């Protein structure tokens, strides 16, 4: 069965990587049960915010997910995050925690690269002023490339000989080498399509190997840039420089430390805060709210500063958006499976849309069924309104994303 999508959080020391991870995995307002069978020491559960299917049918008050939570039609879906060890230049040669970083990275399907755009930390995370964060993006990508390329070149002679002797396709030969990075033949084929006029493998020189590895990285590790510490005075010029240098890479402006503070204030009942928005309400804003506590002058001043420097200026802390962007580069679509296709309820009770999984856009309904239910015989598949759905139909937002599967009785399998 396919595994759950896994998003790696990467960045140099002191870039705000750990704070970003904490802000993405704050389960205090969520639920304690997770759909994942095990959570390794370096894995965590994040929450992807989407518009829930319940909001399409006015059933928000009946929506009670088995995993995650739904708040007024905004659903927080658990998604696996990988806390990758801090990276420094020279990681591919084993410097710092390089070996651990790169070994952990094999599992990731996409990366969130947390970049300190304040320019106050150097390549190794030490305090400085005027550092150019563009360097961080370039050397991180280069470290990954040199790691993959180095592994490939060590065996290149035997790879070519085996490829020629077995008369294998380039896709099959490369998948044998790239399988250790949790790739598959389709992924390798998509990477090779990025290269025009691809020559025969046995004629590849070092430049061609580099080009192939870069194409593989674009498919295997699609990256979102979390441009962090946006409230620093030097951030603006660095943000502009990065966006101009990488126009085709998704970049989200973030202040992870602000998000962590806001969620802390929510738990302490000092504010009402809607995650992913600019809206904060204090006791001064909502004097009739008996649950809110009044703040002292110092804390009020801090909240006003957050409003002015981050929320009103950028629209949000960016934390919710950065996880959405990572899901977008992976083309993830929420698919809701229900027992009763007419009421959207489960096996019992009136609660609706209890189960939801994230799958890649364009997957067939049959593959979604296998992903969710394993090796069983499906007797029928129904969509909204009880309409029959073909196993070869594909899923997308608003299309075949609410499904009911009927399993054939044991004697008919």
Automatic annotation (TrEMBL):
One of its GO terms (molecular function) is ATP hydrolysis activity. It comes from the Eukaryota. SUPFAM superfamilies: P-loop containing nucleoside triphosphate hydrolases. It holds the Pfam family MMR_HSR1. Residues 5-274 form the OBG-type G domain. Keywords: GTP-binding, Nucleotide-binding. InterPro entries: Beta-grasp_dom_sf (IPR012675), G_OBG (IPR031167), GTP-bd (IPR006073), P-loop_NTPase (IPR027417), YGR210-like_G4 (IPR013646). GO terms for cellular component: cytoplasm. This is YGR210Cp-like protein. It comes from Ascoidea rubescens DSM 1968.
């Amino acid at each position: 069965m396919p595994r759950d999508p896994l998003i790696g959080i990467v960045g140099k020391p002191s870039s705000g990587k750990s704070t970003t991870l904490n802000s993405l995995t704050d389960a205090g307002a969520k639920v304690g049960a997770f759909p994942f069978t095990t959570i390794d020491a370096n894995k965590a559960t994040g929450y992807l915010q989407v518009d829930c299917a319940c909001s399409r049918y006015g059933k928000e008050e009946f929506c009670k997910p088995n995993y995650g939570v739904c708040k007024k039609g905004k659903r927080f879906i658990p998604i696996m995050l990988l806390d990758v060890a801090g990276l420094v230049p020279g990681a591919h040669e084993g410097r710092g925690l390089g070996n651990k970083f790169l070994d952990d990275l094999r599992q990731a399907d996409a990366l969130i690269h947390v970049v300190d755009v304040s320019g106050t930390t150097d390549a190794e995370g030490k305090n400085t002023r005027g550092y150019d964060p563009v360097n961080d993006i370039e050397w991180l990508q280069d470290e990954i490339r040199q790691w993959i390329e180095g592994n490939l070149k060590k065996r290149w002679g035997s790879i070519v000989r085996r490829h020629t002797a077995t008369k294998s396709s380039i896709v099959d030969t490369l998948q044998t080498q790239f399988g250790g990075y949790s790739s598959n033949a389709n992924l390798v084929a998509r990477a090779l399509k990025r290269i025009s006029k691809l020559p025969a493998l046995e004629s590849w020189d070092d430049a061609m190997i580099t080009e192939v590895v870069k194409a593989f990285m674009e498919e295997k590790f699609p990256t979102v840039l979390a441009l962090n510490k946006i409230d620093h005075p030097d951030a603006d010029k660095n943000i502009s420089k990065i966006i101009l240098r990488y126009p085709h890479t998704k970049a989200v402006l973030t202040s992870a430390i602000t998000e962590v503070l806001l969620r802390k204030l929510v738990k302490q009942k000092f504010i009402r805060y809607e995650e992913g928005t600019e809206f904060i309400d204090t006791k001064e804003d909502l004097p009739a709210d008996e649950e809110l506590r009044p703040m002292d002058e110092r804390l009020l001043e801090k909240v006003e500063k957050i409003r002015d420097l981050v929320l009103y200026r950028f629209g949000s802390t960016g934390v919710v958006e950065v996880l959405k962007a990572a899901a977008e580069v992976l083309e993830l679509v929420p698919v809701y499976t229900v027992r009763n296709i007419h009421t959207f309820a489960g096996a019992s009770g009136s609660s609706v849309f209890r189960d939801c999984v994230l799958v890649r856009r364009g997957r067939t309904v049959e593959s979604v069924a296998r992903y969710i239910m394993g090796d069983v015989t499906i007797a029928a598949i129904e969509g909204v309104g009880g309409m029959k759905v073909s196993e070869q139909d594909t899923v997308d937002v608003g299309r075949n994303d609410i499904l009911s599967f009927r399993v054939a009785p044991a004697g008919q399998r």
